[in-house]
């Protein structure tokens, strides 16, 4: 059973998400919160598999709550799915840097919301597919003039790990990566398990963000 908490300052949205996710046979909503402070307190107390956080809440916002639950200095992180109504909101970039395992638009289809929760609970992370290229291009552009904070991938990763990271950045699943590289899915999973600690991240999404920040991957220009 996937245990989650839902945090949103709008009662109708909070109730809708709770009803949607709680109706799934493998998902249990163990707590709800109306602001960021309450969300952090609940998550630390209940230790859910996923915390679904609205990015804009009174008091402690979604970014601050995300950093408190799964930032780089947190020893026992709670995976966070950030929900937003803004497709290129500045808060999204801050949430990625704060350690969020994924983000999704609130107007996503119900099955996409459920799939995102399951993906994050499984340790895969998720990024709204309609926004991936736009968000990562903007993310890379905003940091183009800033110093790189980690060594380049070529200095840290094997050739095969770099191949997998490049395909991961294209949004491929483990199965798609395995087909592309003509290897077993278990081989892809093993490489990922070794790669993530090398670059100091905890999820596939954070690995993609790291790759763009460190210019291991670049966003192609639109035609």
Automatic annotation (TrEMBL):
One of its GO terms (molecular function) is DNA binding. CDD domains: LuxR_C_like, REC_NarL-like. Pfam families: GerE (PF00196), Response_reg (PF00072). Residues 150-215 form the HTH luxR-type domain. SUPFAM superfamilies: C-terminal effector domain of the bipartite response regulators, CheY-like. GO terms for biological process: phosphorelay signal transduction system; regulation of DNA-templated transcription. This is LuxR family two component transcriptional regulator. It comes from Flavimobilis soli.
């Amino acid at each position: 059973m996937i245990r989650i908490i839902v945090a949103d300052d709008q009662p109708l949205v909070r109730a809708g998400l709770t009803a949607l996710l709680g109706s799934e046979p493998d998902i249990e909503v163990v707590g709800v919160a109306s602001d960021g402070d309450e969300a952090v307190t609940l998550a630390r107390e209940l230790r859910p598999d996923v915390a679904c956080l609205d990015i804009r809440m009174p008091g402690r916002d979604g970014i601050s709550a995300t950093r408190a639950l799964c930032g780089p200095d947190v020893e026992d992180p709670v995976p966070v799915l950030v929900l937003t109504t803004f497709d290129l909101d500045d808060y999204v970039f801050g949430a990625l840097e704060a350690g969020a395992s994924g983000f999704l638009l609130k107007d996503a289809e119900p099955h996409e919301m459920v799939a995102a929760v399951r993906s994050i609970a499984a340790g895969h992370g998720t990024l709204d597919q309609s926004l991936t290229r736009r968000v990562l291009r903007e993310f890379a552009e905003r940091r183009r003039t800033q110093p790189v904070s980690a060594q380049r991938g070529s200095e840290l990763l094997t050739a095969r790990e770099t191949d997998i990271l490049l395909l991961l950045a294209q949004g491929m699943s483990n199965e798609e990566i395995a087909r592309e590289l003509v290897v077993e899915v278990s081989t892809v999973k093993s490489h990922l398990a070794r790669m993530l600690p090398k670059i100091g991240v905890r999820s596939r999404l954070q690995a993609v963000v790291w790759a763009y920040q460190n210019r291991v991957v670049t966003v192609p220009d639109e035609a």
